[in-house]
Design goal:
This protein is of the alpha/beta class. The chain has 8 helices and 5 strands, in the order ααβαβαβααααββ. It has a 5-stranded mixed sheet with strand order 2-1-3-4-5, sandwiched between helices.
């Protein structure tokens, strides 16, 4: 895996933070008003995270981070609509983050809903389903929701690289690395896909 040095350093920091979370030994101390005041008029996150809006998946907690460390975009099922793409582009283009984490997770309600309703339009959540159904369209044998979530994370990376010149140019120039990750609820661990 060829990861640019700056991105590797930040990814290792986040994975160590996840170990702190799992071990019950968090070290983040920058969760206070003094830290907020430090960043009152600017921000310097070292990573962007596209995470599900699921209440059990809180990147700052599971990566043991505080104020100002992560630029987090949360949306149901880490679906990549226009506003989500542009938010990530902002982190890459304006904030110069070297690392983008795509964070799927176990027991994702969006994956269950999509799997149960595929290929039908349900009248609800159509923009979400439009971002999830392409994985099911591949006609692979996807019986496990957690495997489906991981396949969707891979699809999101492909979608971003195909549909965002900002993100694909940053990856191609070595200024950005995309790490596909999956959060396991039973262990608290974040695994690289």
């Amino acid at each position: 895996m060829n990861i640019p040095e700056k991105a590797r350093k930040e990814l290792n920091k986040l994975l160590q933070g996840n170990q702190n979370f799992v071990n019950g030994t968090p070290t983040a101390s920058n969760m206070n008003l003094d830290t907020l005041k430090k960043y009152a008029f600017h921000q310097e996150p070292y990573a962007a995270v596209l995470s599900c809006s699921d209440s059990r998946v809180v990147p700052e907690i599971i990566f043991d981070c505080g104020i100002g460390e992560l630029f987090v975009v949360r949306v149901a099922g880490i679906t990549a609509g226009p506003n989500v793409v542009e938010s990530l582009e902002y982190a890459v283009y304006k904030l110069k983050v070297p690392l983008l984490i795509l964070l799927g997770h176990d027991d994702c309600g969006v994956m269950k809903y999509a799997k149960d309703n595929y290929p039908n339009k349900t009248g609800h959540f159509e923009s979400i389903l439009n971002c999830v159904y392409p994985v099911l369209d591949k006609k692979e044998d996807i019986t496990c929701h957690n495997f489906f979530a991981q396949q969707h994370t891979i699809w999101v990376e492909e979608f971003l690289l195909k549909n965002s010149a900002i993100i694909s140019d940053a990856v191609n120039s070595g200024g950005l690395y995309i790490a596909k990750c999956h959060f396991d609820h039973s262990t608290g661990l974040i695994n690289l896909i």
